[in-house]
Amino acid sequence: MQVRVRIRRYDPAQDQRPRYQEYVVDAEPEDRLLDVLNRIKWEIDGTLTFRRSCAHGVCGSDAMLINGVNRLACKVLVRDLGSTITVEPLRGFPVVKDLVVDMTGFFKAYRAVKPWLINDETPPPTERLQSPSERERFDDTTKCILCASCTTSCPSFWSNPEYIGPAAIVNAHRFIFDSRDRGAAERLDVLNSREGVWRCRTIFNCTDACPRGIEVTRAIQDVKRLLLTERV
Ligand code: SF4
Ligand code: F3S
Ligand code: FES
Q1: 172 pLDDT higher than 50
Q2: Residue 231: its pLDDT value, please?
Q3: Would you say the CB of residue 219 lies under 6 angstroms from ligand 2?
């Protein structure tokens, strides 16, 4: 089959404004969109710029807006996209070039919630034990691959890029609800701030966008509930 791929191109160093460029490409229905983008870059137009690495839905580097929906290019099949496919960069971040966006703010928000285990107590002689039910409490949020699909699908983030965003909250949740961690208070201070969880208006776009199936809105609600019950 042949597919027509419309890609939003923009090089801020040279272009006055973004434009859409179309490529007609031979593809198999079972090809992933990433295969098609690679074919364009390797065989038709080497100037096309996008991020990718693992090609198996693990690294999170090829999230982009595909037919208006945030998805990983390596996890979507051509047969599910129709004969004309529109590909654009994630919304809400500055474009570096074409489909590559500047994720500096995204990772700043991620670091702000201290996404590592905090515990200064003397370590036990063996592992820090945890029951299955304690592990279950944060199992869902361990699956995040930092693709930014959630944050860049959130209208609250579009209207206020200072909002810490669902991805950072998911990664805070992963440690706040870990029974071995002692850093919840530090993280909750950040999440209770002006640009923290209260900017979330429970719109659910983040949950719909997550390629890992994480219940993002539910994780945000867990944090809000904890703030209301522990801090008031
Ligand atoms: Fe991506 Fe899901 Fe993590 Fe958000 S929560 S960054 S959508 S994997
Ligand atoms: Fe945004 Fe998700 Fe909340 S889309 S408003 S972070 S539920
Ligand atoms: Fe790694 Fe798609 S290239 S998630």
Answers
A1: yes
A2: 63
A3: no
